[in-house]
Amino acid sequence: MACDPAVRHRGFGRAIVRAAEDWLIARGVWKVQLMVRDTNTRVVPFHERLVYQVEPRVVMSRRLDGRS
Length: 68
Hints:
Elements: H1 12-26, H2 43-49
């Protein structure tokens, strides 16, 4: 999800998240997990205001195309 910087702080991001949550709820999904890069520090407070919590997790991956 992203919002054009020119229209930030107008409630569009909040509306997008709520619409996505409503869509998931209507389909019986009971939990949402977000993966946020540690360099994307600006988005964490946004989601915390929407009552998302930071949870301790380890995410592991491996590229299979030889690139790092």
